[in-house]
Amino acid sequence: MPQHTAALDELRDLVARHARPDQGTAIDGLLLARADAAEAPSTSPSGTVLALIVQGSKRVSVGEKVLEYGPGQYLVASVDVPITGHYVDVDASRPALGVGLVLTPASIAELLLAAPPGAVPVRGSDAPLALGVADATPELLDATARMVRLLDRAHDRAILAPMIQREILWRVLTGPLGPSLAQIGIADSCTTQISRAVRWITDNFAEPFRVDELAASCGLSPSAFHRKFQGVTASSPIQFQKQVRLHQARLLLVSGDDDVATIAHRVGYDSATQFSREYRRRFGESPGRDGARLRNHAGRTA
């Protein structure tokens, strides 16, 4: 893990001062996160983001892959997939703090077009895992600090924020996670092909599907599709659909409007017993107990 730097110390102060509950900021695409207490792991969409930890640590999993990153390390999520995560090494006197940047294909494609030949690391035909972690360089930490510093300098934001964002993306593109980031900006990359399948499954999670038909919609053979999908999401298409269904079920349980059997049917399960078994395996508790606990927590938070 990289040593503490002046930029990291400054980022701690800035994030602690500016972080809001909704993580938003006055700079479009810039997110600030703060957690004052450790909580149980929760599942949510990853988005396509760059996430830098400046204090504390975070543990996330996609499929069967588990990653942990701490101060001065960053994560790139190149595909919007359901992930399970939580902050660790957190207490009220030392909250977890992080900086996020939403990644858009257009901004990355622009840099790829302007990059000199060989400047961006390349990867073979298979797409990288949707999540990757690396150590931030001093240059990346410095650029990130200058970006967050603009929250105190309203008159500079419109001009400097796009320039610094471009620098941050360039530092990541030319680093160890460059291939993952580059895949977002390439229209026909493996990542964009699998992203289409991920989006379809996420939008139609209750519907059955044939893997060969989904593969054809991505322009891939069934064997190539299965290999690439597994490489990006660390799960098979059917396992991924199960993860999305269980995540959606958990959201429905929080609202408390339906019973467990009704929710099981709404997310695509024919058997409430199978749903309860797979839910317990995924979240460690029965749907009823987990839903009650989550509703209780949501009520205390409110």
From TrEMBL:
Alphabetized UniProt keyword annotations: DNA-binding, Transcription, Transcription regulation
Domain HTH araC/xylS-type: 195-293
SUPFAM superfamilies according to UniProt: Homeodomain-like
Matching Pfam families: AraC_N (PF06719), HTH_18 (PF12833)
Superkingdom of origin organism: Bacteria
Basic and acidic residues biased stretches: 282-293
PROSITE patterns in the record: HTH_ARAC_FAMILY_1 (PS00041), HTH_ARAC_FAMILY_2 (PS01124)
GO molecular-function term, one example from the UniProt record: sequence-specific DNA binding
Region listing for Disordered, in residue ranges: 282-302
PANTHER family: ARAC-FAMILY TRANSCRIPTIONAL REGULATOR, TRANSCRIPTIONAL REGULATORY PROTEIN
Protein name: AraC-like DNA-binding protein
